[in-house]
Design goal:
The chain has a single domain, classed as Rossmann fold. The longest helix has 13 residues. The protein contains five helices and five strands; from the N terminus they run E-H-E-H-E-H-E-H-E-H. Strand 3, helix 3 and strand 4 form a beta-alpha-beta unit. It has about 130 residues and is an alpha/beta fold. A five-stranded parallel beta sheet has the order 2-1-3-4-5, with helices on both faces. Helix content is about 40%, strand content about 20%. One of its GO terms (biological process) is phosphorelay signal transduction system. It holds the Pfam family Response_reg. InterPro entries: CheY-like_superfamily, Sig_transdc_resp-reg_receiver, ST_Response_Regulator. It comes from Lolium multiflorum.
Length: about 130
């Protein structure tokens, strides 16, 4: 798949983390949409018509701690809509219980912050997007 056609939803409340992730994603030719909390992520996914399939996004990156709705709850709600899009948690909380909480919520993978070119390459390959 051509990386320029890969659409990612980035769910992150901290501007500095969005700046870093945006730079890495755009450098890889990935199209990125950003939201600042889990509730906005759920809304965007719902509006994309993703129920029962993969929808408009090829990949979702989500943080853990955010205002309004955290990444765990957003992941649960997105999965409850029947969305199969891979969800990757990107968090500085990376102890085994933190990782397991995301996997239990429905995330497919976890990577510690910050998102780097190398981590992105591995993730894209893992989900057949590279």
């Amino acid at each position: 798949m051509d990386r320029r056609r890969i659409r990612v939803l980035l769910v992150e409340d901290e501007e500095i983390h969005r700046v870093v992730a945006r730079a890495v994603l755009r450098a890889a030719g990935v199209e990125v949409e950003e939201v600042e909390n889990g509730a906005e992520a759920v809304r965007r996914v719902r509006e994309s018509g993703a129920g029962g399939g993969s929808g408009a996004y090829n990949l979702i990156f989500t943080d853990k701690q955010m205002p309004v709705m955290d990444g765990h709850e957003a992941t649960r709600q997105i999965r409850a809509m029947g969305v199969a899009t891979p969800i990757v948690a990107v968090s500085s909380d990376s102890l085994p219980p933190d990782v397991q909480a995301f996997i239990t919520a429905g995330a497919n993978d976890f990577t510690p912050k910050p998102l780097t070119k190398e981590k992105l390459g591995h993730i894209l390959a893992k989900f057949g997007l590279a």
